[in-house]
Amino acid sequence: MSEEATEKKIQEKGLTAPRLTPEDIDAKIKGTTFTKLPSGKCMICEITLQNGFTVRGEASCVSPENFDQEIGEDISFKSARDKIWQLEGYLLQEKNPIGQTYLDRLIAEKKDLNKKIGKLADFIRSPEYTKLPDKARDQLNRQSRAMVDYTGILTERWKEILTERWKDLR
Length: 170
Known about the structure:
Elements: H1 3-12, H2 22-28, E1 29-36, E2 42-49, E3 54-60, H3 69-95, H4 102-124, H5 127-130, H6 134-169
Antiparallel strand pairs: 1-2, 2-3
Helix pairs in contact: 4-6
């Protein structure tokens, strides 16, 4: 099944858990380089990712007479691109561990946000803050208020989830 057909099925079935899409993978690619090895039987594709990391894929044939540049580039590119799926899948799994519930993610997000609010509040109370231009201080104050509003919304969502779970336990 083609990648496009697989993606269509995923969307039709409404599978919405954290996942990667072909567009996510393509967005990571900064550039590609193809190299035909001296044997005349092997093509190497090196994909450079947006962060500078590189992955490689290869295509080869038994006889140099059967080597085709276009086919070699296509196969070696697909081989290298498959490695990006693996790398990005690993990173996504790190962000969304198996068994981590929606509530777990919400709590982690709230904890992280509260740390940032605390650091910003510390800075606003520091002597460096008073040295900033009025506009920068205003922006930081607005940012602080927005972050506090945001954590309030997370708290509301958390309470709603717990209320629903409590109902289910009765």
